[in-house]
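Appendix B, example 12.
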Amino acid sequence: MTTEHTQQAEHALTPSSYIQHHLGFNAQSVGDTSFWTLHVDTLAMSVILGLVVMGLVWLVARGATSGVPSKGQAFVELVFGFIDDQVKNIFHGDRHKFIAPTALTVFLWVFAMNAMDFLPVDIFAKGIHALGFEHWRAVPTSDINTTFALALAVWFLMIFFSIKAKGLGGWIHELFCAPFGSAKFFKPKSFLGFVGLVLSPLLFVANFAFNLIEYVSKPLSHSLRLFGNMYAGEVIFLLLGLWAATGVTGAIAGAILGAGWSIFHILIVALQAFIFMMLTVVYLAMAHESH
């Protein structure tokens, strides 16, 4: 299908098919089966934005001086200081070794991926069609695969630091002995200790069930919060674009509402990146603490 035919087909789309068309992924099957698919657009945009953001920070840091800072250096130092203050209020260990750099990376990367939602949908789609792509999602965080992958990475780090801080035995002990009971409680040196020893198998089951729910809920809530907000924002932009295509009145109303939603969406983009970063720091800080 040529670019001209693609554009003509897009103009003939109904409102629902228009939204579905823009929300489609550039998916490629992995292997001979369609069970595993790779979202090429999500992967490409995530990697490109990560390289761009970290590259810009590296360039500013490389040219940093101890004298009067440039505007870029002043902005980067402001962001560094803001993130470091947030981490300091939550994590009380050596934050500069890993936690603070991880928080900075998460915040900047998620913010950059969220900010792709400000690209004009139809203009971006025409540019993508000119390059020969039928579908291309520009906002990686509106894909559940991206947010869940980020949340799982934080989840594995949380388990790693928990084992590193408490030891494998201490981590397993915490799984079965917290929040109900402790090592001292199960030593039969008193009547209470004897009762605790008798009831310990039941308490082990209850403790493990509570901890299992906690471990499962963390990546789910961490990923779905970011995905839900960014996906909803993308759909609203598409609805406003449809309204603008209904005529002169719709175009004026769509432009006014689109401008208002864009201004409000700036707060959502920054706030969701901040929340995702803060939850990352909180989970990693909890991994270093004992019940």
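Confidence is low (pLDDT under 50) at residues 1-11. The two ends are 61 Å apart (CA to CA).
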